[in-house]
Structures are given as structure tokens and as C-alpha cells.
Adenosine 5'-phosphosulfate reductase (Gracilibacillus kekensis), 243 residues
Amino acid sequence: MITYKSYIESPLNEETPPVDDPTKGALNIIEWAYQSYGDSLVYACSFGAESMVLIDLIAKVKKDAALVFLDTDLHFQETYDLIEEVQKRYPLLKIEMKKPSITVDEQREQYGAALWKRNPDQCCYIRKVKPLEEALSGATAWISGLRRSQSPTRANTRFINKDDRFQSIKICPLIHWSWEDVWDYIQLNALPYNKLHDQSYPSIGCIPCTAKVLNNDDERAGRWADFQKTECGLHASSPSSTN
Ligand code: SF4
């Protein structure tokens, strides 16, 4: 097993991608990750646009890779439809629909109506962070689709990140990809994608916390649009965990 320490000291974790690699280092990192971690590597997949790229690249390396989707029970029907479509296109992928320990109704009974409006951090903790913690309990490392250009909080993300939050290694193959790179790859390879992307939703999460983005260059402006919140808590420590 290659440790985090040995990895960050290796040339693979360099800041700039190889110039002759059209995937900007992503495929190289994915190959390395599965060679190093094998079945103890999990991809936490949101089924956003970046996920379509990552799924396609991962399937080139490991057709039966393990994916976990944090099924909050609050996603758009279009997202569930996409998951079905992906499973048909990549039949060997093992997609786990990871649910929170309490249903939406139980959450309302215990915490009051629409917790996401009053305390979205607590809601995300119950419905996303805790389930991911459980899903990663048997994993040594996990893959995420973070890109540096998504937001200032992600600008320092490296290919491999020490993840103190989940006591794990977080592998981010797409750090050098732009939004345009993602869509070029999707179109070039005729990949499926969430139909809501064609309706002004660049970033798609739970229904109560996702809004359309109109006349705004910020890809994530539609997430928790009424709050200062910009992250669900899964990646809160990513910039500082890289070194
Ligand atoms: Fe709750 Fe919104 Fe977080 Fe989904 S994104 S878990 S609805 S606060």
C-alpha cells in the first residue's frame, strides 16, 4: 500500500499536469489510485457533469469500480433517471445508493419542518456527511470530482489530499479541468448527463437547495443561494488538508 506521505513526495502529485495528456493528468491518477488502493477505493459520485467524465475515465481502468451516491431522498427525478441511465451504460459499476439514518419525515418530526431553510449545515450533516462517513468506513481512499476553478475554496486542491474529516485519502483527478473541458469531453464521447444542465442548472444537488443560475458566471451560485453556505461539508477541509 502506498501511503499518503510517500505519494505527496512522488512526482505524480505535481502541481501542473503533463502537457501531452489530454485528460490533464486525470487518467494517470485514476490508474495509480486503483493500482494502489484496489477495492478499498470508493468514488463518491454526485452525478453532476464532472461525474460523467470521471465515471467514463474510471470505467476505462476498473469496469466494476465501487461508487457511492448520497441519496438524501431530496434529489430531482432527473438525477435518479440519470443514475439508471449510467447503470445501463456501465453495467458492471457497483453503485450504492447510500441513505441517511432517518427519512425526511423522521427529520421533520425530530428537527421541525424544512431544516434546510433554518439550519442547512445540520441538514447536510444528517443527510450527507454522516452517510459518507459510514460509506467510507471500510475504504482507504475516495475519489471526488473537485476542480480548482469551481470556487476559491477549491483552488488549492491537489491530486491527492489528506482528508482529516473522513480519516482518509481524497483523490481529485479533475483539479486541472475547466468547466469547458468537462463539457467538451461529455460531448465528444456522447456521455449521458443530467437534463437539468440544459435548463440553467450548472450545479445540481438537493431540490430545496438548488436554484437556476441566470446571467452569472459562478457555476455554483445556484447552490444554497439564500445562504452564505457554499459547501455541504464533505469538502470543507480540502484546501488546508493538501499539505
Ligand atoms: Fe439538506 Fe440542502 Fe444539504 Fe440536501 S443540500 S442535505 S436538503 S441542506
About this structure: The helical segments are 4-8, 26-37, 49-61, 77-89, 104-111, 115-118, 120-135, 179-188. Residues 4-242 form a domain with the Rossmann fold fold (CATH 3.40.50.620). The chain has one domain: 4-242. The first strand starts at residue 41 and ends at 44.
